[in-house]
Amino acid sequence: MNNLLDKIHQQNATAFTHSGKFHADDVFSAALLLYLNPEITITRGNRVPEDFDGIVFDIGRGRYDHHQKDSRVRENGIAYAAFGLLWEELGSEILGEELAHKFDESFVQPLDNNDNTGEKNELASLIGNFNPTWDAEGSNDEAFFQAVSVAGMILENKFDRYRGNERADKRVEEIYERHMQAFHDREKHSEDAKILILPEFVPCQKFLSETPVAFVIFPSNRGGYCIQPQKKEYSMNYKCSFPAEWLGLENEELQEVTGLKTAGFCHKGGFLMTTGELADAVQACKISMEQFCEKPVIVSFGGDTEYDELLHQIPKLQAAEIIHIDFPTFPEVEVQGIYAEVSMEKQEWKARIKEQVKQILRYKPEAVFVGENLFAAYPIVHTLRKKHIPVLVPAEKDGQKLQIKWLTYPSRQELPLLAESAQATLKDIGMDVDINCTADNNSIVQDTAAWDVYAMANVQAPTGDPEYWFTVFATSDATKNQGAYKNEKLDQLEEQLSQEFDTDKRAKLAVEMQQTVLDDNAFVYCSFLKMSMISQANVTGLTAHACDYYELTADLDIN
């Protein structure tokens, strides 16, 4: 039961927020409430009235405020603002749980982060521009509700887009399954597997990036057919491209070079081609695949040729062409004691970074290797990662290639998969992971020289008391402290905990101990294990729990 939603839908529902200058946070919070109930009355003021019984947000230090010291922070480190706190409770009611989570990541969190830290956000700046000028007379409530109206339209369009994308994914999945079934039933030749014909246009790039489909054909709203090449997953590059000599041509010129009677247009950027007939569209795809010769590129940004051999070992890039680009001269710095500041104007610095990124991107690289000062290259690396381009760096220890000895065991099905995933990921940046997945792990783990990482599964709170885990795994004399982790503060806190019987005080000590372990990065928590629950039909009251100890309850029964 969602009490907040019930309160929003009440007859004569009311809400209260702060007056004065407004930001994207309180504006979108108001827009969200109005989306759910257009009749809700939202009032602004400097202080929440004592007798106010409605919804209070972004003021008052309550459930939907974030200005207090103990305001909540997401697991990824992004603090909640009022909009995020409201969305947490209301999002799944609007978009469903899965889409609501995606919407929080892509839309809500950037606005929350802007409000809490001031990090630049174009949408937040746009909303902020609705504030009256400093010398405007009268109340700014009118401007606030103008901004809320705009935010409401943005939300409504965004919600429609998310729902539309979800419908598109389901539609494309259905079409793709029929497409693949046709090959299984031998209704189509295998050579056509990479060509998907849609009955109508459906956004499909995201879904198809993980499939072999290289071209999509769909009816054009201008008549005839459109052809779109599909990009690789997490890449700027296409799985297959139109021949270079086709690009930018149309009508007779394109017909002559392709040999296709109804060829109409091929965009100079290579992302679209049109034909008058379906058969010509299919043939255009086949010609492109026959002539296509993939030449993957790795841009070595400041890297010496000595790394080339190592780069050629990257999976699927063994035949890649390596383009070397000199690392730019680092700007002069002004030294002030132990500090130094770049002696370059901000705009000049930004322009320089933009030009450097542009130089790298013109090669359409599958990956970029940074061979020099990663700190100096960070602004460039950050931009490349936002474009989903893998950025590689050399990984060495004491002048030698870093190799990690990974110890785990096979009895938990996820542990070998975790090891293989880490191995594949770290190989991309030049680290070797030597996996030892063995049932003899309990004896091998005793020799700390035999492993660098020990991946195991354990129950963190089997007893309902916080002390158990620390005394088994984390304190200096813990029975399963295989990594010989030691922190004197943690040991002292455990000594206090062992002599403390007040429940609230024990909880506070446990939280402090937990934070100590996390600050030291002593343990890394990767995932929950997948568990399968099987029972006879006469078992009732069994509820799955992340910790199996808590599945044994008073409600569990065998009839």
Distance between the termini: 31 Å
The Cα radius of gyration reads 30 Å
Q: Runs with pLDDT <50, length 5+?
A: none
Largest beta sheet: strand ordering:
4-5-6-8-7
How many individual helices? 17
> Please, what is the average pLDDT?
87
Largest sheet: 5 strands, mixed
Q: How many strands?
A: 21
Q: Secondary structure elements and their pairing?
A:
Elements: H1 3-8, E1 14-18, H2 24-36, E2 41-45, E3 55-56, H3 82-95, H4 97-117, H5 122-128, H6 141-184, E4 195-197, H7 205-208, E5 215-219, E6 225-229, H8 251-258, E7 263-266, E8 273-275, H9 278-291, E9 297-301, H10 308-311, E10 321-325, E11 333-336, E12 339-342, H11 346-361, E13 367-370, H12 374-386, E14 391-392, E15 396-397, E16 400-401, E17 403-408, H13 414-427, E18 432-437, H14 441-444, E19 453-454, H15 467-474, H16 488-498, H17 503-519, E20 539-540, E21 557-558
Parallel strand pairs: 1-2, 1-3, 4-5, 9-10, 9-13, 13-14, 17-18, 17-19
Antiparallel strand pairs: 5-6, 6-8, 7-8, 11-12, 15-16, 20-21
Helix pairs in contact: 2-3, 2-6, 3-4, 11-12, 15-16, 16-17
